[in-house]
Design goal:
The chain is α/β, with parallel strands linked by helices. It has one domain: Aldolase class I (TIM Barrel). The protein is built from five helices and seven strands, in the order βββαβαβααββα. A seven-stranded mixed β-sheet has the order 3-1-2-4-5-6-7. The chain starts with a strand and ends in an 8-residue tail after the last helix. Bound molecules: iron/sulfur cluster.
Length: 167
């Protein structure tokens, strides 16, 4: 897995003060994609154990409250093998940190696939669906087009259907 970008102290991608990790590689190829450079799985820099350790340390800093990690792409769910180790460590080693994830797949498409579902189970919030240029709305929070949803993962998984995040 390659990393396209890593932004510390991000306040745009999710609730609270967070770190944001952008994975490389996306096969959805949405028209009007905000970051087409990340379609290439070789874009950016290789993900390493040292980098993963750094992310864990960054989440656990104590001089400011970090809400959690946001994982964007590219398409994180086309990098499941690369991300599973990280999300498991966050749940084990980072107390009270949530994980937000963005995907071009819908919730229904993710839960229909065993490996994608496994990654989702470690996440708390899912912003789902492809970016559809014709439905673009610049006023939306955390998403770019009207079809995309902000979902409460735990509630959605327990009810077996998409449940919106209470704001
Ligand atoms: S899913 Fe996201 S990264 Fe992939 S093409 Fe669509 S907007 Fe771009």
């Amino acid at each position: 897995m390659n990393i396209a970008d890593y932004k510390k102290f991000d306040v745009i991608n999710g609730k609270g003060l967070r770190h944001a990790l952008f994975t490389s590689g996306c096969e959805h190829h949405c028209k009007g994609c905000f970051n087409a450079a990340t379609w290439n799985f070789d874009y950016g820099t290789p993900y390493t154990q040292e980098f993963e350790d750094q992310v864990i340390r960054d989440l656990n800093i104590d001089y400011v409250v970090i809400s959690g990690l946001s994982i964007l792409g590219g398409e994180p769910f086309q990098n499941v093998d690369g991300l599973l180790g990280l999300v498991k460590r966050i749940k084990n080693e980072c107390k009270d940190k949530d994980i937000w994830v963005w995907s071009g797949y819908t919730f229904e498409e993710i839960i229909a696939d065993e490996s994608r579902l496994e990654l989702l189970t470690y996440c708390d919030v899912l912003i789902d669906g492809k970016f559809i240029l014709e439905q673009r709305n610049l006023k939306l929070q955390w998403r770019g087009s009207e079809n995309q949803r902000v979902l409460d993962v735990k509630q959605s998984l327990s009810q077996g259907q998409a449940v919106g995040l209470g704001m």
